[in-house]
Design brief:
Blueprint: H1 2-39, H2 49-87, E1 94-98, E2 101-104, E3 109-115, E4 119-127, E5 133-142, E6 145-151, E7 164-174, E8 177-179, E9 182-188, E10 191-195, E11 198-202, E12 208-210, E13 216-217
Antiparallel strand pairs: 1-9, 1-13, 2-7, 3-6, 3-9, 4-5, 4-7, 7-8, 10-11, 11-12
Helix pairs in contact: 1-2
Length: about 220
Amino acid sequence: MTTVTSSTSATAAATTAAAASQLSATQDRFLTLLVTQLKNQDPLNPMDNSQVTSQMAQLSTVSGINQLNATVQALSASMTSSQSLQATSMIGHAVLVPGNQIAMASGSSNAAVELSNPADKVTVKISDANGNVVRTLQLGAQKAGIVDFQWDGKNDSGTTLADGAYTYKASAVQGSTTSTPTALTYAMVNSVSLTSGVAQLNVGTLGDVALDAVRRIL
């Protein structure tokens, strides 16, 4: 989106200008102090050349650090701009992001869970809008990572439920330890925005999610 790119460019320019202004102010203060020191030195014990050289070297070091900081900040702003521009190519695509929503359409739906460790047993409980559990899925033993699952839209009695929005919770058992996997849901990217220098994807009812939260792009 051009608004994202232009906004980031303006931020980068402002950051560079502020860094340059700060560097100039630092140099002015140093030179003022040095001149004042030279004017008021003891004529019988004047500052030797090594002292002047040492102070000039300190100014050079400070200036170099400030210039390096300005370069890094400008580079960071440029990378953010590039990242935001790349993110716009995801508009109109489905992504897999953290969330416990599962939308059923035409009698089927897909979602996933993310396991930080292997599990002997993974269970998914799907609930309706009122919070009632309508279907329990047993995914069996799974390795660590993203585990996809599909729901056929039927409840535990085998009755096909109406299309719409449902939610789910997952649990994993490894030996005697029970854990809660990260729930992942598929959503469509509607737009891209830049918030506090971070590219955010608007994915409908899930709101905005950070670009680095995306687990998969379809």
